[in-house]
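Service request form, structural biology core

Requester: graduate student, group of Dr. S.
Request type: structure prediction, single chain
Budget code: on file
Notes: please return the result as structure tokens.

Sequence provided:
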Amino acid sequence: MPTSATPAVDDAQPSSPVPPAGKNALDRYFRITERGSSVARELRGGLATFFAMAYIIVLNPIILGAGQDKFGHQLDNGQLVTATALMAGLSTVLMGAIGNVPIACAAGLGINAVVSLQLAPKMSWPDAMGMVVLAGLVLMVLVASGLRQRVMDAIPGGLRRAIAIGIGMFISLIGLVDSGFVSRNPDAAHTTVPLGLGQGGQLHGWPVLVFVAGLALTFVLLVRRTRGAILIGIVAMTVAAIVINTLADIPDASWGLSVPKMPDSVVGTPDFGLIGDVSLFGGFHEVGLLTGCLFVFTVLLSGFFDAMGTIIGVGEEAGLTDENGQLPNMGRILMIDGVAVAAGGAGSASANTCFVESTAGVGEGARTGLANLMTGGLFLLALVVTPLATVVPAQAATPALVVVGFLIMASNVKEIDWSDFTIAIPAFLTIISMPFTYSITNGIGIGVLAFILLRIADKRAREIPWLLNVVGACFLVYFMLDPIEQLLGVK
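Core staff response, request fulfilled:
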């Protein structure tokens, strides 16, 4: 694998420390030859990345569309598809053109769950998206001031890994519930088991079978190292669902938000109705200053560490990092990541972040931002074929949530030092708290507070960064908000 330290040269050119004569401006701008690549490789890599992450066009609308805001409003599925594709295309192109790395961006899984399940129920949708925009703006300020790296260093590595694992479990639970494979037991059941298999402990109906078959197919493709396994699984089970829905008498409600019926036309006019529908500070009026700040912090933290890990991981796989693990143009890359978060909120697509699926393009030879122009261009092209995306039922798409949850967990769990209980216990509490409380915020807060407590108990308080103590204080107030309000006579 060629690296930036030992750049390869096109086979047709003699070896030389100077770029071959006749190379055009495109080659010089993206440093294609210098990084041992070619235009063909970059385009092929960009195509592979798109196929590996195109599922987000379907999944993001499902996650956001499943939520209701404080006033009972749900977002339109077609508008969400447009917003998701548009913001992914623009942020990916921007990362490629300015950051010059083959790292694509789109609405982050996990962050969109925070927006849909935690923010929106407490305020209006424009208010919730405004919180995302504010998180992006804060992220840009952190990058400009140099504080982003300092905050990153303040969170112990094991706890960062646990946050990612907890999000993976949370995403998987969402997939299981939204598919109907797992359902909530009603309170009337008077049982200590909050969730059960299917309905009444049994799987019923064709839609759930589509989910089971899709999950099995995707895992099989993953084991066989098939590129685009997630997308192939979604497409295959969508076709199967359309056939089943045509032949069997299935109520539309059984499929959920999207019914697998072919549209009259595969080409449609994008609906930009959600673009710019944002209220920056309205959420603070609904939930108060403290809770609002914690919500912004949660969105910020949810994407903060995942993006950093993805940037470094993809860069290392592409051979672009130096001996200190730094990428060229790191400042630009981090700033574009912040812009992507804010832009995703402004477009009502939730925060955009770097996608680890970019490694699919790197595997195909992508080494520069030119690959992103291909990936982003395909996302923008998807704007005019949105009717195809809206026929994908939840049961065909949610297997991807379970698979992505597994991938997140598999890549992080082995990196935690389970022999050090002052990190292992907070990591464990973080991981289980997110799905069991159905809240990413709770998981992060419990983990941070447990880490601070156990390090103090172990007489290692000096090892706790002061920034982490500040974060812990904020979470302590968050969890004690109700008794504090009662004490102050607010309630």
